[in-house]
Structures are given as structure tokens and as C-alpha cells.
Amino acid sequence: MTLEAKNLCFTYPCGRSVLQNLSLRVEGGERVGIFAPSGRGKTTLCKLLAGYEKPQSGQVLLDGKPLVSYRGYCPVQLIWQHPEQVVDPRLTLGKTLREAGEPEERLVQALGIQPEWLSRYPAELSGGELQRFCIARALGPATRFVLADELSAMLDLATQAQLWSFLVEETTRRGIGLVAVSHSAPLLDRVCTRRIEL
Ligand SMILES: Nc1ncnc2c1ncn2[C@@H]1O[C@H](COP(=O)(O)OP(=O)(O)OP(=O)(O)O)[C@@H](O)[C@H]1O
Questions:
Q1: Ligand 1 binding pocket includes 16 (Cβ within 6 Å)
Q2: Which positions, given as ranges, span the membrane (predicted)?
Q3: Are residues 120 and 152 in contact, defined by beta-carbon separation less than 8 angstroms?
Q4: Residue 39 Cα to ligand 1 middle (Å)
Q5: ipTM greater than 0.95
Q6: How many helices (H) and strands (E) does the chain have?
């Protein structure tokens, strides 16, 4: 499969123009690092690639078809920088995990998700623990591309290394394309097959 951004232009309603004519092509199984200083538009690009925002002009295509024409579970999944902002605080983590269907036990174990966390609420877990649930939720059976937006910025080095090596192994095994966003060029060079600068 191919994920393609074609000539994307995006301006927020306040008039802040963030992306001008941006094009990008990612193949299944490829790992592309996106490197840019703060405020350049990395998160905005991820939101466009996952269909959370619509460009004023240009298109996001999945295998040549507009992403907006895919119904149901989106094959392009975004792992957000701040997991606490993208989980429902009123749901237990067990329910959060099942939002994308029954999770594979293998994934739950590989991510180090502890059984006793499942009955807790998001506010009762650390950021790193919560991010593991968001990663598992993003890796449903129909996922073809994963966008990882600074997913490890708030984690200690050992946890960062563990989560990245899991993501590399899992995406390689399933031929999933990965777009990784970071301020750290060394991290992207370790994780990705190529790196681009915005
Ligand atoms: N909802 C919004 N409304 C208006 N402007 C916004 C909105 N979200 C982001 N911006 C602005 O758009 C620009 C790009 O933001 P974005 O979050 O995409 O950058 P980024 O490269 O991911 O930054 P960082 O590395 O700090 O996370 C910034 O100048 C930001 O202030």
C-alpha cells in the first residue's frame, strides 16, 4: 500500500498558514522520519495524513484513493504526542483498549500492559503506561500506516527504546508503513529507513 500527500496546503481558521504545497509518499513497510523545529507543522501534517483535518487544497491518497473515501476503521492511525488528551477519561483502560476491537494478546504482552491496569481510569496511569494503550489501540488488524507524533517525548530512555523497538518490529512484521515525528535526528536515524526535513 502507498500513503501519499499531494500538494497539501493548510491554513488554520485563525489565518495561520502552516503547510504550502507539501508532497510526501510513503510505501508500506517503509519508515519515514519527519524532522523539523517546533511549530513548523509536523503535528498538523500528521492530522492531515490521518484525516483529522482537511487541506484547503491538495489530497491525501491511500493506494491512489482519497483517504476520505475509506469508511469505518481508518487504515491510517495516529499515535498522538499526549495520550491523556486522546482517551476518554470516563472509560476504563480495558474499554479504551477494546475501542478498536478485541486486542491481540500478543500485542498487549509485548507492550508490557499489566492486567491490573485494565480496570483503572486514564488519570490513574502514568503517561508512559497510557501511551502503551494508545499504541495497542492504533495497531488494529486493518491498520496499514502508523503515524507516531513525538510518541516518546515524555518518557525515560529505557521506555523510549522499548516502545520504538516494539514499533519497528511490529510494523516490519506486518508490512505497515511508519511515519515518525521527532525533534531528535539521532532517534529518527536509528528508527527510520529515511528522514525528511519539513
Ligand atoms: N488549532 C490551531 N489553531 C491555530 N493555529 C494552530 C493550531 N494548531 C497549531 N497551530 C499553529 O500551527 C503551527 C504548526 O503547529 P504544529 O503543532 O503542527 O507544529 P509542530 O511542528 O508539530 O510543533 P511542535 O514540534 O512544537 O509539536 C504553529 O505555529 C501553531 O501555533
A1: yes
A2: none
A3: no
A4: 5
A5: yes
A6: 6, 9
Please state, rounded to an integer, the average pLDDT across all residues of the chain.
93
Q: Which three cell numbers stand for residue 175?
A: 508490512
Residue 35: CB partners within 8 Å, gap ≥ 6?
182, 183, 185, 188, 195, 196, 197, 198
Residue whose Cα lies nearest atom 24 of ligand 1: it is 38
- Side-chain-side CA neighbours of 41 within 13 Å: the count stands at 19
Does the CB atom of residue 182 touch ligand 1 within 6 A? Answer: no
Q: Is 149 within 8 Å of 7 (Cβ atoms)?
A: no
User: Residue 59: what pLDDT?
Assistant: 96
pTM of the predicted protein model: 0.93
Ligand 1: residue whose CA is nearest its atom 7: 12
Ligand 1 center from residue 52 Cα (angstroms): 14
pLDDT digits (tens, 9 = 90+) for 34-71: 999 889 999 999 999 999 999 999 999 999 999 999 98
Report whether residue 12 contacts ligand 1, using a CB cutoff of 6 Å: yes
